[in-house]
Write a sequence for this structure.
């Protein structure tokens, strides 16, 4: 069965035309997906549906072949273990009053995965290592880090509960050019190692998608106008 599937998803904000209509796609483990489209095409809305933050107006989401109902608290909780997210701005997404250790440990605590101090600390250290930050970053605070390092902290927080899916919304758009490349390399690495993590990237930048994603999907006015292997979609006339 597929890791994740969207079947004929639709969504409309109150009093507005459809933000998404008839969106269907399948995600297989290890096949990173790029979601591209102009501003207003529906990318962020689709990501929110995939995260369970917003319920579709129509259609179905399936994880590992089972329909996912975000009205159920227990299903939502299970879904947070399944799918984690990284957002565009690493300045606003990290609480400046919390140490890096607390920030990264948050999903472990809130999802009830791990409470024992030593075990939490060990998983935070492992996550820091996976994203290329030194272990002593744990005791420091977000303002002590550059934009790229902050995005690494946000990625560490997302991967610490061992999710199957990592949803990244414009993960490098707020970073300077040289930092972008290295964050893209990190995401590519995370999506190709032994861990069965699959990355979904929303981006307006085709270069990011070409570097990271085996498959891509193009949204236009809330509809999928193209999807398939990245090389095929990018070379289509
Ligand atoms: P993208 O991420 O591709 O820029 P969005 O998903 O943000 O697209 O937006 C899709 C459509 O939904 C746009 O027409 C946008 O104006 C509209 N929209 C987005 N968020 C809201 C909201 N909170 N309330 C009403 N309309 C919204
Ligand atoms: P309002 O606060 O005006 O109801 P919302 O944007 O919160 O507007 O939601 C509009 C509709 O979209 C809701 O009536 C509901 O059916 C659906 N909806 C949005 N988000 C969720 C959600 N997280 N869970 C369930 N339904 C939601």
């Amino acid at each position: 069965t597929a890791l994740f599937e969207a079947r004929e998803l639709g969504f409309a904000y109150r009093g507005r035309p459809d933000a998404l209509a008839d969106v269907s796609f399948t995600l297989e483990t290890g096949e990173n997906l790029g979601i591209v489209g102009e501003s207003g095409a529906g990318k962020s809305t689709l990501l929110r549906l995939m995260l369970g933050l917003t319920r579709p107006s129509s259609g179905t989401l399936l994880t590992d072949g089972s329909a996912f109902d975000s009205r159920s608290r227990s299903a939502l909780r299970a879904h947070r273990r399944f799918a984690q997210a990284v957002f565009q701005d690493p300045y606003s997404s990290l609480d400046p009053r919390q140490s890096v250790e607390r920030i990264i440990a948050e999903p472990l605590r809130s999802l009830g995965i791990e409470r024992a101090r030593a075990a939490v600390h060990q998983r935070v250290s492992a996550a820091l290592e996976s994203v290329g930050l030194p272990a002593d970053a744990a005791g420091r605070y977000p303002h002590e880090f550059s934009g790229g390092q902050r995005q690494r902290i946000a990625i560490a927080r997302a991967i610490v509960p061992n999710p199957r899916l990592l949803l990244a919304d414009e993960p490098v758009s707020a970073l300077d050019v040289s930092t972008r490349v290295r964050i893209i390399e990190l995401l590519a690495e995370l999506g190709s190692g032994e861990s069965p993590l699959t990355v979904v990237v929303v981006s307006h930048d085709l270069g990011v998608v070409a570097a990271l994603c085996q498959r891509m999907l193009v949204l236009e006015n809330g509809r999928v106008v193209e999807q398939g292997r990245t090389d095929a979609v990018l070379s289509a006339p």
Residues 5 and 26 are 4 Å apart (CA to CA). Strands lie at 4-12, 18-27, 33-37, 58-63, 66-67, 83-86, 165-169, 198-202, 215-220, 223-229. The longest strand covers residues 18-27. Residues 117-130 form the longest helix (14 residues).
